[in-house]
């Protein structure tokens, strides 16, 4: 089965269900299911979707959360979800199903919905194109896999979780072999869904795994990322497991990252991050790009670390980036440069983001930072050598509240993404923080209940 479909392929291949899906603020897919016959009628008109999907929080709570975009003050109006037919492909982890990703359009004037994640990324891709640059990216996602379905774990209050590895087994083949029947099927389903797998491995944490996808242009990579997460979670549940992309699900174990690899080519397809005469074959353009990413990391933290749990990971020293640092092939820094191989492989790896990122937003942040760094010839300073944690490093926001305030007041972000985008995403992050602060945790009860 091909990994890209035309409408005429659906009936021929026995597909009886098509999903049209957008991506919400948190990076989760939303949409509707239909027959191929109905799908064919939706290509121009799209689906009518309530604006609530961009106005509620992770738990779909609305009370106390206000955004200008939608609410009772707008009558909870609709927007249109228009299928991007170039993304139509099998959802091979589901039976006889295809999926088509979609763009969000304002029904009143036909314009792209400014606060929609796919719109935000597309505008940064277009900005790079106007400068004669095209970015290629890869998002390396780690996740934990526990025994028991999501319903099982929820019923047990997410206590006494049983991991799918019993010992720390980073890169270990034996531990990987024990779960290979599951992962072989998952890799095949991803490949058959147009989400091509590069390599897979056991990770360090108990029950932690990583599957790397082949790199692609930025929009295709973001599309693959959301499909990959959906497939992993669905396939795990089908086989009696639960997959989580929480950045740090366990207090005493390693966090899960979304390291973002980025390379850039010019209009003629020539890699511009490579320079045979540069230090470690890194071009000045690459150095400036790194300078931009570091210069704006604090302002964009609420996209790189978008949940309360994100800061359990970024506040650690478990390969989660370290301040505004960079270096050549150094995993103790925030931006690791890999430039000594083939010219097309010259790239930087941004190690700050966690597995909870919305890929459209995280990639938009990286690309906007690259553009500004190159445009302004920003200097990242000298590379870190050895243990960058030992040398400290400039601080980044340590809570979601700090990140939200940095984002709201960023002149760079306002110029790159627009004031409406800043206000919208600040409101959601601010609400998430205050919802957390209103909640009493198990840690607090265990520490204080009978001791205070």
Structural overview:
- The protein has 452 residues and is of the alpha+beta class.
- The protein has two domains: 105 residues, Glutamine synthetase, N-terminal domain (Ubiquitin-like (UB roll), Roll); 320 residues, Glutamine synthetase/guanido kinase, catalytic domain (Creatine Kinase, Chain A, domain 2, 2-Layer Sandwich), CATH 3.30.590.
- It is 33% helix and 19% strand.
- The chain has 15 helices and 15 strands.
- Strands 7, 8, 9, 10, 11, 12, 13, 14 and 15 form a nine-stranded mixed β-sheet that branches. Strands 1, 2, 3, 4, 5 and 6 form a six-stranded mixed β-sheet that branches.
- A hairpin with a 5-residue loop joins β1 and β2.
- α8 packs across α11, α12 runs antiparallel to α14 and α13 packs across α14.
- The radius of gyration is 22 Å and the shape is globular.
- The mean pLDDT is 96.
Short summary of the structure?
The chain is α+β, with helices and mostly antiparallel strands.
Tags for this entry?
single chain; alpha+beta; Ubiquitin-like (UB roll); Creatine Kinase, Chain A, domain 2; 2 domains; nine-stranded mixed sheet; 15 helices; 19% strand; globular
- How many helices? The count is 15
CATH architecture of the largest domain: 2-Layer Sandwich
| Global geometry | globular
Instruction: Please report the total strand number as a whole number.
Output: 15
Number of domains: 2
Largest sheet: 9 strands, mixed
SSE topology sketch:
Layout: H1 9-12, E1 17-23, E2 29-34, H2 36-41, E3 47-50, E4 78-83, E5 89-90, E6 97-105, H3 117-130, E7 133-147, H4 150-155, H5 173-178, H6 180-192, E8 197-202, E9 208-213, E10 216-217, H7 218-238, E11 241-244, E12 258-266, H8 284-295, H9 301-304, H10 310-314, E13 326-328, E14 335-338, E15 347-350, H11 359-375, H12 400-408, H13 411-417, H14 419-437, H15 442-448
Parallel strand pairs: 1-6, 13-14
Antiparallel strand pairs: 1-2, 3-4, 4-6, 5-6, 7-9, 7-10, 7-11, 7-12, 8-9, 12-15, 14-15
């Amino acid at each position: 089965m091909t990994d890209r479909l035309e409408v005429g392929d659906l009936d021929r291949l026995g597909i009886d269900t098509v999903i049209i899906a957008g991506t919400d603020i948190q990076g989760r897919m939303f949409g509707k299911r239909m027959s191929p016959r109905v799908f064919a009628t939706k290509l121009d008109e799209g689906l009518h979707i309530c604006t609530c999907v961009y106005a509620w929080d992770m738990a779909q709570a609305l009370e106390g959360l206000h955004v200008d975009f939608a609410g009772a003050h707008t009558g909870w109006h609709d927007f249109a979800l228009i299928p991007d037919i170039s993304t139509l492909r099998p959802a091979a982890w589901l039976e006889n199903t295809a999926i088509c990703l979609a763009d969000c359009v304002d029904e009143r004037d036909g314009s792209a919905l400014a606060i929609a994640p796919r719109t935000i990324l597309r505008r940064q891709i277009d900005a790079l194109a106007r400068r004669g640059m095209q970015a290629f990216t890869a998002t390396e996602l780690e996740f934990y896999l526990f025994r028991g379905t999501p319903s099982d774990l929820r019923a047990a209050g997410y206590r006494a979780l049983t991991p799918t590895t019993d010992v720390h087994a980073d890169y270990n083949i034996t531990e990987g072999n024990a779960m290979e029947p599951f992962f072989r099927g998952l890799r095949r389903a991803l490949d058959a869904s147009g989400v091509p797998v590069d390599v897979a491995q056991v990770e360090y944490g108990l029950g932690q795994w990583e599957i790397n996808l082949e790199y692609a242009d930025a929009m295709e990579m973001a599309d693959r990322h959301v499909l990959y997460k959906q497939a992993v979670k669905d396939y795990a549940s089908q086989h009696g497991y639960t997959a989580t992309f929480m950045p740090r699900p366990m207090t005493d174990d390693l966090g899960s990252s979304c390291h973002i690899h980025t390379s850039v080519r010019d209009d003629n397809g020539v890699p511009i991050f490579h320079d045979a005469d540069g230090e470690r074959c890194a071009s000045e353009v690459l150095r400036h790009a790194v300078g931009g990413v570091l210069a704006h990391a604090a302002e964009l933290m609420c996209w790189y670390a978008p949940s309360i749990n994100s800061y359990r990971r970024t506040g650690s020293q478990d390969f989660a980036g370290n301040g505004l640092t960079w270096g050549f092939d150094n995993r103790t820094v925030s931006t690791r440069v890999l430039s000594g191989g083939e010219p097309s492989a010259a790239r930087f790896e941004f190690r700050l983001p966690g597995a909870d990122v919305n890929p459209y937003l995280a990639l938009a942040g990286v690309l906007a930072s690259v553009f500004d760094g190159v445009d302004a010839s920003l200097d990242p300073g000298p590379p870190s050598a050895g243990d960058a944690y030992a040398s400290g490093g400039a601080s980044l926001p340590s809570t979601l509240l700090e990140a939200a305030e940095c984002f709201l007041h960023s002149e760079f972000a306002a110029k790159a993404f627009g004031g409406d985008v800043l206000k919208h995403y600040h409101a959601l992050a601010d609400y998430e923080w205050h919802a957390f602060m209103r909640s009493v945790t198990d840690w607090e009860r265990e520490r204080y209940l009978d001791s205070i």
